[in-house]
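@channel sequence for tomorrow's demo:
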Amino acid sequence: YPRRRALETQLGEFNLTEIEAMLGSYTKVLFVRDPFQRLISAFMQGMGSSPSFSSFVQEVLDGGQHNASVTWKPLVSLCRPCLVQYDYVVVFGFLRQELGHLLRRAGLPAGSLLPTFTDTQVRWTYSWLSEQMFSELSLQQKKQLSRFYRWDLSAFPFSSSLLTG
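structure tokens (generated this afternoon):
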């Protein structure tokens, strides 16, 4: 799509006709990750001032969705899957097979371009870590988190998320 603006121009700065033309001319790929795993990752990277995961989660919940950091803000509010028809949705934890498929669809040699992924170990580690962190939360926090991320949990295939239970 011909550029008339700076490289950092956000999609919302274009008019509806321009947006439709741009989105129609690109292959749109969305990478998603279980929201609870995103919270764990943010906590582990020190993205809050809280000493415990439970208090970090409470900070996130108290801040609300409008004040949430991009790191843990619900994906639906960031990527607008109801407005943008993505060609591919790639779920974290299944990167190797999904990226391989995506590269083959694009006509590229998937085997030589993909880095080595350790999806199986990553899934096992996050499963274990998620269960440990989830057990630190109160029942009220678990319910509030499920509500906080309800649209993500409805829009994306996070069937094994602890927040869906």
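heads up for whoever presents: The chain has one domain: 31-155.
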